[in-house]
Specification:
alpha+beta, Alpha-D-Glucose-1,6-Bisphosphate, Chain A, domain 4, 10-stranded mixed β-sheet, 10 strands, ACO12 thioesterase, lipid binding
Length: about 200
C-alpha cells in the first residue's frame, strides 16, 4: 500500500511536469490544456480560485463532496480508510447516451506541501479490491492517473490544476468536449470554482 500511495503521488507529479502541454481553451478564470503522447491523451484544467490553498485542498480532498459540483459523479462511498492520507472509494458515474453506467474503484492519496513553493496534491488512480468485484449493471472502468495540484497565489487565492490521463473508460465523457461540441469540462470547472468559493 505504501508503494501504491507513493506511485500515485509520483505519477501525478510526473504528469504535471511533462513538457509539451498545448492550450486549447481560455476563459476568464479557466484554461484547458491537452498533452498527447502516443495513444495517451492527457488534459489539464487550470482554475483561478479566490480561496486560500489549504481551504481548496480540504474541500477537494473529500471525495464525498464531489457530487456537489461534478455531475459525472452519481455516488461516491468510502470503502476503506487506509490511513489519514489514503482512502479507497467506490464511484459510480452517470451513463452516456446509449451506454452502460460506469463504476470505478479508486485510491485517493493526499499530500501537503513540505516546502512553501510545493503544491498540495490530491492524486487518484484505480485499484483492484477483491471485496468489490465488477458487477453486471456497471461497466468497470479505470483511471490511470488523475487528480489535483493546488498552488498558493496569495493568502486568499490559489490556482487549482486538475489532471486526467485519459483511458478509453473516460474517453466518452471527453470526446465530445475536446472537439468543442460539448462544454462539460468547462461547466464542471466553473461549478468547481463556485463550490470552492
Amino acid at each position: 500500500q505504501a508503494y501504491l500511495s507513493y506511485s500515485n503521488i509520483a505519477a501525478l507529479t510526473h504528469l504535471a511536469r511533462k513538457p509539451g502541454w498545448d492550450i486549447t481553451k481560455t476563459l476568464d478564470n479557466v484554461r484547458i490544456w491537452t498533452h498527447e503522447e502516443g495513444s495517451v491523451l492527457s488534459f489539464k484544467v487550470e482554475m483561478q480560485v479566490k480561496v486560500p490553498s489549504h481551504v481548496a485542498f480540504s474541500l477537494l480532498s473529500d471525495f464525498s463532496l464531489r457530487q456537489r459540483w461534478d455531475r459525472h459523479f452519481l455516488t461516491c462511498k468510502v470503502l476503506q480508510a487506509v490511513s489519514e492520507e489514503e482512502k479507497i472509494y467506490h464511484v459510480t458515474s452517470a451513463p452516456m447516451t446509449g451506454q452502460q453506467p460506469r463504476d470505478f474503484v479508486i485510491l485517493v492519496s493526499l499530500r501537503q506541501p513540505s516546502r512553501p513553493q510545493e503544491p498540495y496534491t490530491v492524486a487518484v488512480r484505480s485499484v483492484t479490491l477483491r471485496a468489490v468485484p465488477p458487477t453486471p449493471e456497471f461497466c468497470r472502468s479505470e483511471i490511470l492517473c488523475a487528480g489535483f495540484q493546488i498552488h498558493s497565489n496569495s493568502s486568499s487565492s490559489c490556482t487549482v490544476c486538475y489532471f486526467n490521463q485519459v483511458t478509453s473508460g473516460v474517453m466518452p465523457y471527453l470526446a465530445a468536449n475536446l472537439t468543442g461540441s460539448s462544454k462539460s469540462i468547462e461547466d464542471t470547472a466553473l461549478e468547481c470554482i463556485k463550490f470552492l468559493e
